[in-house]
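Schema walkthrough. Field components (list of strings):
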Amino acid sequence: GRAWGAWRGGRQRQGGAAAREPPRGLGETGLLEASVSEAKAGRTDLIFLIRFRHCCLLRNQRCLLAYLYDRLLRIRALRWEYGSILLPPTINMTFNTSFCKFLLVEWFNRYKKSLATYMRSVGGEEGLDLTQDIKPPKSLYIEVRCLRDHGEFEIDDGTTILLKKNSQHFLPRWKCEQLIRQGILEHVLS
Amino acid sequence: MAGAMAAAAGGDSDGESEELVLTPAQLIQSLEQAWLNEKFAPELLESKPEIIECVVEQLDHMEANLKRAKKGDLKVSVHHMEIERIRFVLSSYLRCRLVKIEKFFPHILEKEKSRAEGEPSILSPEEFAFATEYMANTEAYLKNVALKHMPPNLQKVSLLKSVPKPNLDSFVFLRVLERQENILVEPETDEQREYAIDLEEGSQHLIRYRTVAPLVASGAVQLI
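Field assembly_structure (string):
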């Protein structure tokens, strides 16, 4: 929730749409082609104008690509933070809505698949989940408080724990890591 | 505990290639050295598939031992903690490499393409597959979302030129493991001239990465 709010308030609004207009606009008016043919016909004083305009277009292209790539990196971060999720439908798109969203989701799914293939190939039969063990382990068991009802939770030796809101438990650290990141449990530091 | 680990790892070292037979303690130390070097080096270092494979086997052995052990035995917690620590170092090492691969993907793939026959690879085969997929995925996305809607002469972009390269001139701390003589230090500004230094064993230095890159690769120095 928190991450989404910050992300939406970020700089993914006007910049993209505005930067994309000039390249199309200039091409459509044919101004560029007219200048180029005149320059070839001998008007060498126009070459400066053409080069200047080309530099502006290149800059717009780079700004746009940087902005799009930055969005990709934020989406990538979701995989590492929250696990192998499906992208929520509330992703905000500022232009060409559904097709762009489709492409973004497609990138995300391909990235997930690529990462999963790599993690499986490392580390024995079951693979090694690299999105776990983010922090150095300080102890085997940790005190956690449940922030919301989560139902029954089974730990390694077979016993089940009922995760009710505000209940506190002393649980194995590695079982809790995912739930802590999802906001269901909270690590209690005394 | 060392005795238990050695017994568990007894089967490890057979069937390995011409490599030295490492004790578990030496294996973990190599892992930690590779981990620290990777963490502090600005570029992606050589891949160490032998170390990773051995560590994974080691972890499997230890976990199997744990399952057989009596419950409530104090040694169980200690072994378990050791497993967690080793797993953390291994995950952190692989994660660090993935982050660098994603950050510098065009340059890394280019370097791999132009690698000579006998030279060791900086990417394991699985990492190479991951890097190529990442590049294809990202290129396809940028092309379909933006580039193909642009005027004809702007539809290509050179990722090699656009994506920043690793900064090999960044400074790193190191500890010298093997004595080195006459290391040439390039001048940073025009006023300085290049000079040579000797690196004494056990000494610690703060130096530009570019100067010591080959020493890191050979294991003569350890980044800290």
